[in-house]
Amino acid sequence: MRSKGRAAAVGGDAQRMLERMKALGLPGTEAKRLAARYPAQSILDAFRYTETRQADAKQALLEQPAAYFRKALEQGYGRREDQAPQAPSRKSISTSRPSLSSIGARRPVPTSAS
Known about the structure:
The longest helix is centred in the middle third of the chain and has 16 residues, at 40-55. The model is unreliable at 1-9 and 84-96 (pLDDT under 50). This protein has a domain at 12-80. It is 44% helix and 0% strand. The relative contact order is 0.11. Helix 1 (12-24) crosses helix 2 and helix 3 packs across helix 4 (65-75). The chain is elongated. It is mainly alpha-helical. The chain has helices at 12-24, 28-37, 40-55, 65-75. The chain has four helices and no strands. Residues 73-114 are annotated as: Disordered.
């Protein structure tokens, strides 16, 4: 049994999404697999991302729009801001190392060669 959030829209909307995926060059079986695996909103976001890229005259022509769409869908490219995963803030990531004195270690005392 599929949850409503994971399954693509039912009926005509699902059929239109499948047709759009096929128009990009995806085989029907691949389109059905992606529609079953991803929520409808993610699919729509990936369409928008791919179509925006295709329409950008400043960039080279997409040689494989189906592969571009698939990657956009799998990687979540084109997700709206309210859906994007939150990256940890820089403040929460500590890259500093403790000093030797803070952990009670002593620096070696240089010996003079005589």
